Amino acid sequence: MLNLLNKRLFWxxxxxxxxxxxxxxxxxxxxxxxxITIAVSATLLSFLLDYPVLFLEKHKVKRPRAxxxxxxxALVIILVLGVILIPLLLEQLTGFIEKFPSWLASGxxxxxxxxxxxxxxxLPINLTLWTxxxxxxxxxxxxxxxxxxxxxxxxxxxxxxxxxxxxIITFYLMLHGDRLWDGIFNWLPNHLEIHVRxxxxxxxxxxxIGQATLACLMGVAMTIGLLFLGAPFGLLFGIGIGLMTLIxxxxxxxxxxxxxxxxxEDFWLGIKVLIVIVLIEQAIxxxxxxxxxxxxxxxxxxxxLVSLLVGAQVWGILGLLIxxxxxxxxxxxxxxxxxxxxxxxxxxxxxxxx
Length: 354
Fold this sequence. Notes:
Layout: H1 2-31, H2 33-58, H3 63-120, H4 128-158, H5 160-185, H6 190-229, H7 234-244, H8 250-265, H9 267-292, H10 301-343, H11 347-353
């Protein structure tokens, strides 16, 4: 009983300190946002590129040569895709923005026809007012989204210096990242250092490798499906769904949005698109995703949503990308510390329990 009271008293006193420290960290992140964004981006890239480097090392290629080879191949792939895809995507994005008002008008006409049919058959349905409000809201939201996308691209192209610094730091981390992390982790107790290293690798590297693989697969499959059906702006919508796959629940949101947009222009084509891309999405989610991701974060969907909201508020797009692995890391570390404080076991016994 006394032990339980002590624990409650500890958390009662510790919670305000945790909240204050969290608020202070948030202010620091916002003040040094640009620098932290560069550092986090470089760290994520080095995590992702470390997999092919390790693969080459297993085949007796020395690490410096493996790093240079993987780094150059990655740069070439990014440049080629950028030269080929970015102009096409910008062209389709511009065309979509120009045609969207006519799509809204077409959607309104279809709904007015449905209202007339409902009145003729004396059905208590009136969608005109609701659809007008929805159209105005959707138009405003899409204009904001497209404006944000264009400004993001322009800002990214304008920050050439930041991009160069990110590339340099990524290359350094691939070569000498172990020394840097050793210097940081050496400040931790030995048992906690082992856990933090493993948990970070699990929740970041594995997560992003899995999400990036799913995003590529989803983007390619969706693009092929949309082009096969003759959907307008198939490349833009397909790659858009693929990019949204990087964020939890993003695929379902992207599929719904694309289907609704195409339905505005052509109702029956929109239905066909919805059926096909839902089948593609379900096939990938049910047969491919479990093998790639394995649900290793162990987070409740509610906490995933909360972490996404917090990540978006703090760091925008980058926050959305890293919110879930950070939440998974925090959950694993808190559970480990609680288990260690109660039983005093090492990392290996904690892993066996879990």
